[in-house]
Amino acid sequence: MSYDSSVDRSTRGRTRPAPPRTLVVGLGNPILGDDGVGWRVAETVRASLPEDNGRGRHIEVDCFALGGLSLMERLVGYERAIIADAIQTSDGEPGHIYCLSLDDLPDLSAGHTTAAHDTSLQTAIRLGREMGAVLPREITLVGIEARRVYDFSEELSPAVAAAVPEAAQIISRLLYRDSLPATP
Q: Would the pTM of this model clear 0.85, i.e. be above it?
């Protein structure tokens, strides 16, 4: 392989700021009933992105089935991440939508002691940063309350399916909030 030094000369001395990079992740398992809601939300967001991919922003949308360290590794290099996922609370109604920062979520590390790859996202992010990984400054979860997360099915329950468009709209507002004019 030959080295072409003209490439280096054309960019030497000039630095361009990197465009904001946002990753939207639909998290879950699409064959476990309501656990697949994150994927459905991500697919809806992907379909709604304009051709210019967000007025010059670099927005990537992905579906992912792993959490913990694997999810942390997927977030490397992004400035911001928005994660859509099923969530289960003690008294939530199926289909209810939550918009939370990573800091708002309970760190369930104590419940993940069987293997290192099962660590919580908070612990994985902390570890990644300690190791020098460039990770998002802002991580937001858009969670949809779900009940049927272990049923082998590609179908969402009616209440969870009905929440998909609204959750996708919330993510769209989060994606474009920096470019919206301030309201008086």
A: no
